[in-house]
Design brief:
By secondary structure, the chain is mainly β. It has one domain. Strand 7 and strand 8 form a beta hairpin. The chain has an 8-stranded antiparallel barrel. The radius of gyration is 13 Å and the shape is globular.
């Protein structure tokens, strides 16, 4: 199964990078909140932004990011199973050390940069 990683990234502001292994790269989204924090409901929705693909190197990396772009720390990792991919998003299942459940990434506007991340823990 392909792998995923959630990195805490402190530049240019505190956020979390969700990276999904796909086709030799990591499809990456910047999440504005930490999805591993206890939610008040069974399902959470977090504002997200799609970023350029990253190197597979980040699946196992923690530390300084080149060009003075802060540092990253692994928050969660594991494997994921793609359930459905559509033009406006994807549904998948996360199986990892801190995230286990159903997830959806969906575009929220026409310019395709703004997304939402919906997660429901098992």
């Amino acid at each position: 199964m392909p792998r995923f990683v959630l990195l805490t990234h402190d530049h240019p502001f505190l956020h979390w990078d969700l990276m999904l292994e796909a086709g030799g790269t990591l499809k990456t989204w910047r999440l504005m909140e930490d999805p591993t924090q206890p939610a008040t409901s069974a399902e959470i929705t977090i504002s997200a932004e799609q970023l350029p693909d990253h190197r597979l190197h980040y699946l196992d990396y923690e530390g300084a990011v080149s060009n003075n772009r802060g540092s990253v720390t692994r928050r969660a990792s594991g494997e994921y199973r793609l359930i459905e991919e559509r033009d406006n998003g994807l549904d998948f299942e996360l199986r990892g050390d801190r995230l286990n459940g159903a997830a959806t990434l969906a575009r929220t506007n026409a310019d395709k940069s703004d997304w939402s991340f919906r997660y429901r823990a098992d």
